[in-house]
Design a protein that fits this description.
With about 325 residues, the protein is an alpha+beta fold. It has two domains: about 100 residues, no CATH class; about 140 residues, Four Helix Bundle (Hemerythrin (Met), subunit A) (Up-down Bundle), CATH 1.20.120. Helix content is about 40%, strand content about 15%. The strands form three sheets. A four-stranded antiparallel sheet has the order 1-2-3-4. Strand 1 and strand 2 form a beta hairpin. Helix 4 runs antiparallel to helix 8 and helix 6 packs parallel to helix 8. The longest helix has 26 residues.
């Protein structure tokens, strides 16, 4: 199963820098991408990294490293990584600001609150609370979208709390044109349906737990689709590489060496190394700058075997 996948010099350097940042006492001597897997549209690359002391698996999106002494089997490391990312308690996640999922952080925070409410829901009033949290998450998205995609049409803009009005505006801008007809229709339909359902859930006296779960998943799906489309539009990411036609571009980051907080990111083609216009990464939603996703900036932790505690790089494996 372990083969060799092509990787750019920038990708290799990025992984090398990550490992040496997490463990500054180590020096990377070998770095190779050996596997890639897409789960729910998220791509996870697996790197085999050797250092002057030991060997590591580095798995991306978000990036974390795992000692090969603790995880001698790559499949086990991948399975653990995916499960950890999906099930990690919110209290153990890096802060949203640290994870750089701006500018939609408030919407993601509200979505996390909806999941927490769902986990504690047992009666009708609890299910209504889940509906309220889902409404808040959807409204948080359009509140940010109003800043990122301001109203420029003739006539008065929709009211700030007019969810459907703003979704219609955002979709018509970020997915304009005949070629985007079905993409635009999907986003509008999913967002409208989620909004209608969670409003019903908020006031229903006959709902059950499965209704609450449906509301959470419908809300998450709508926010995910709309935030992704909005992000790609504002960051000016083309649907394909203008040089070679590659349909799978990847983000490439660069930091100002004099100011680590000054981060820029642009679309990059791993096939021909074309790079699009970079935009500055900020923590505020403004009309010309936005960003979705960044490698985990928090401290990397390594699970011990048996998995009873979490250790940092440099700790001895027992």
């Amino acid at each position: 199963m372990n083969g060799v996948l092509s990787a750019t010099d920038e990708e290799v350097q990025k992984i090398t820098d990550y490992v040496e940042w997490q463990a500054p006492d180590l020096k990377v001597t070998f770095c190779q991408k050996i596997y890639s897997e897409s789960v729910l549209s998220h791509r996870h690359d697996v790197w085999d990294v050797h250092t002057t002391k030991d060997r590591w698996w580095v798995i991306t999106n978000p990036t974390n490293l795992y000692s090969q002494d603790q995880f001698p089997n790559m499949d086990y490391a991948v399975t653990f990584h995916l499960g950890l990312m999906l099930r990690m308690p919110r209290s153990e996640r890096p802060a949203i600001m640290e994870a750089q999922i701006e500018p939609f952080s408030k919407s993601f925070e509200a979505m996390a609150a909806a999941y927490e409410a769902l986990g504690q829901a047992h009666k009708v009033s609890d299910f209504q609370t889940v509906g309220v949290r889902c409404r808040e998450a959807l409204l948080a998205f359009v509140a940010i979208a109003q800043v990122a995609i301001p109203w420029t049409k003739e006539g008065d803009a929709p009211k700030k709390a007019d969810f459907k009005g703003w979704i219609d505006h955002v979709c018509s801008v970020v997915l304009a044109g005949e070629t985007n007809k079905y993409r635009r229709q999907l986003l509008k339909t999913q967002a409208d349906a989620a909004w209608t359902f969670v409003n019903w859930l908020t006031h229903s006296t006959s709902s059950n737990w499965h209704d609450a779960e449906t509301g959470v998943h419908a809300t998450e799906g709508a926010i995910s689709l709309c935030s992704t489309a909005t992000t790609l539009f504002i960051r000016k990411v083309p649907s394909q590489c203008p040089e070679c036609g590659n349909l799978r571009l990847t983000p490439l980051r660069a930091e100002n060496p004099e100011d680590p907080k000054d981060v820029w990111e642009g679309p990059f083609c791993p096939e021909c190394e074309w790079m699009g216009e970079p935009v500055q990464i900020t923590t505020e939603p403004i009309p010309i700058i936005t960003r979705e996703g960044k490698d985990d900036d928090g401290e990397c932790i390594i699970p011990t075997v048996p998995l009873r505690k979490l250790a940092r790089p440099g700790d001895e494996v027992r």
